[in-house]
Amino acid sequence: MVYCIAGITVINKNLLAGVVEKMKKDRPKDFKVFVELEGEKRISVDNLFNLLENIERYGSISRASTEIGLSYRYSWGLIQNAEKALGIVLVKKQIGGYEGGGTTLTREGRELLGQYREFKGEVDAQLDRFVEKAVGLIQPPLSADDTAGKTFQRHLLLASTMEPVETGLLDVLEGAFFQDSGVLVRHIALGSGRALQMAENGRVDMALTHAPELEEKFMHDGWGKAKYPIMANDFVLVGPASDPAGIAGVTASGGAIEAFRKIFLSRSPFISRSDFSGTHLKELNIWESAGISPEGESYIRSSGVIGNLGILHLAHEKKAYTLVDRATYLLSRSAEKNMKIFIGTEEGNVLPGELDNVFSLTLVNPERVISVNYEDALLFAGWLRGKEAQGVISGFGREKFGRPLFSTITN
Fold first, then answer.
1. pTM for this structure?
2. How far apart are CA 280 and CA 303, in angstroms?
3. What is the mean pLDDT of each run of 10 residues along the chain (411 residues)?
């Protein structure tokens, strides 16, 4: 089971063991946390959230470290690595406090902890429903002793764009597929550009991305064997409720292009992911359609910030506009932070298809990369387009947000 906020991934090892009956009786609490920087280096931060919770409770990193069995030195290194990966400050030291120098969470640290608890609750609710359905269907279920420390004979490696990972949806899908097929899917969270590059390098079996131009090039160049649209939502232009660029009055005839022009001409701050992710490429496409090459101090490039959640947080901090997907906006607490959606499909002020956001699974061509597991990748693609997976997608987020975070694609 994987939960993720802005590039921090938490893996529930019991789900990988497939012990459905045990999961039903005893909710797993054994987590392993890591941060992956630019898809290359994984920094172990196994007890990050426990550490933050205990710092919040005791006001001391020394006491927090002791409570969870970590050394003081390791704890500080763990926090510093997480802060570097996320581009935010999580804790602050001050004179005094419990047992000497005090340490407290910053506003950003508290918000990160709150976001983690929020989406973890959503994923756990989905998992509960899946477990109820799955009990008795596995013949026979694997035990933790059978799987611990062993290599799965059938497994797939997926390079995925951040949004399905950050929301927790991909993790639920991977878990359900494992129960149905016995094939373990592991994912690496990246921007779409990096995900497809990793696929081209033969390091994964498939890529889940939302960058149509890059996907088509990947297929045209012969690196992809097959491409399957899986789900969709839409991009939205969000910004401070004060609306310094005056884009609230933009209508469908002007759409995102007119809104971007207003932002640029007013020199209002705009946050760009600048990482060749699907979100960044959509942003560049809109600037190009508007006939604008964005430059200057108001155009803030933030390629070091991981994922749309991180970008949205930075936009709030800078009182800036930014482009994200609707699921990220709903997942965040932006509505409570004086950030709002100005331009979007549901808002009725974009041209048809202008901000569509389609997520497609592309399978690596085994004729170009002989090491890929194409047979099981094809099985996974078919399963994702089947009734069970489409049911998970169409319902994911409804309980928490009153609506699903993604829509299914029937074709």
1. 0.66
2. 10
3. 38 38 44 44 56 80 76 80 80 58 80 66 53 42 43 82 91 94 92 93 95 96 97 96 95 95 97 92 96 93 78 90 94 73 95 95 96 96 96 92 90 63
